[in-house]
Amino acid sequence: MSIKEIGLIPAPHASILEETVINAVEWLKLGVETLGALVIAMGVVVACYAFIKALWRRDNSDFQDVRFTLARYLALALEFQIGADILATAIAPSWNQIGQLGAIAVIRTFLNFFLMREMAEVQRKQEQSR
Length: 130
Prior knowledge:
Helix content is 85%, strand content 0%. The protein is an all-alpha fold.
């Protein structure tokens, strides 16, 4: 039985394959983060447009709709960012980085939870007022 057969010498392609997977996950993570940032940017543009319309009409009740619009985009963007965090933990080389990513994911999850709760409350109030 040779040393290669019992696995003491790593296969030459294992490190190349591992490096390829890590690079692919890093690119995917970057894409998901970019998508989240684009969603935020779109939300800001849409909310700014709605805000200017509300100012033009001088209707204060529209301001709550502006907040609600922006909140929907932020909630979606947070979902993308949490997805990127999950991808990052798959390739994090140290426990310190995994801990930092975990803390960021927890913070984003709490933000998303409270944002969704506030959106549900606003929607409930809007339905009651109709």
